UniProtKB/TrEMBL annotation:
This is DUF4386 family protein. The keyword Ribonucleoprotein does not apply. The chain crosses the membrane at residues 20-40, 60-81, 93-116, 149-168, 175-192, 198-216. Keywords: Membrane, Transmembrane, Transmembrane helix. It comes from Streptomyces himalayensis subsp. himalayensis.
Length: 226
């Protein structure tokens, strides 16, 4: 009798944890991505001009400060989402994809932070003017991690979460279509269209908002059932 009452409380807490963590992650990641895009020049030849601007350097420093918190909230979000959808007998294949792609995305997010930190000379000192090739290597590493690798892992995470939610009937139709579109953009468009990586935090924000909203509609039904 006691375990029957404890289970609904746990079920109610998990969606709210996923919603709160996802919203915080989406806001932090979106802000960090915008700052990185603004601060890193597209043309490597303009490196000296861009990094001589104190505003650009401060933007990079702010982005670096946000990334660790974004990574922590993403891990919290991923764990809460998996717990939310992980008790309905879903396909283990997609469950493995969700966990694997999520962990790889988090690792590449921190790798991106290391690359961006290298652009500022590590600790904020200006890069030596005679080391243009080293600066370009760090820039190329950052852009490649962001566009070619991290966001494609985000696409796999989006697909696996959307498929599991669809199979269990947890997501509305509009959220399924949004997940499909976001995954396609992150997988095939990310390399050619700047700023398209913002699709991922937008999708996380939409998913988290829906999960959080739905969690406040369930207590009445749960209480009535008990």
């Amino acid at each position: 009798m006691q375990s029957a009452k404890a289970e609904p409380a746990r079920v109610l807490r998990t969606p709210r944890a996923a919603g709160v963590a996802g919203i915080l992650f989406a806001l932090l990641l979106g802000t960090a991505l915008v700052l990185v895009r603004i601060a890193i020049p597209v043309d490597a030849d303009s490196a000296a001009h861009w990094l001589a601007d104190e505003d650009h350097r401060n933007a990079l420093k702010t982005a670096l400060g946000l990334v660790p918190f974004a990574g922590v909230f993403f891990l919290w979000f991923m764990g809460a989402v998996r717990d939310y959808v992980g008790h309905g007998g879903e396909d283990r294949f997609f469950d493995t994809l969700l966990m694997g792609s999520g962990l790889l995305f988090a690792a590449m997010l921190f790798g991106l932070a290391v690359g961006v930190d290298g652009l500022t000379g590590g600790g904020g000192a200006s890069p030596p003017t005679g080391e243009q090739q080293s600066w370009e290597l760090g820039r190329h590493l950052s852009v490649s991690l962001l566009g070619d690798y991290a966001m494609r892992m985000a696409a796999v995470f989006t697909v696996s979460t959307t498929v599991i939610g669809h199979h269990l009937g947890l997501f509305p139709r509009w959220l399924k279509w949004l997940g499909a579109v976001a995954a396609l953009v992150l997988m095939f468009v990310i390399s050619s269209v700047p700023w398209s990586e913002l699709v991922f935090p937008v999708w996380v924000l939409a998913l988290s908002g829906y999960v959080l909203w739905a969690s406040f509609r369930r207590p009445d039904r749960t209480t009535a059932a008990t």
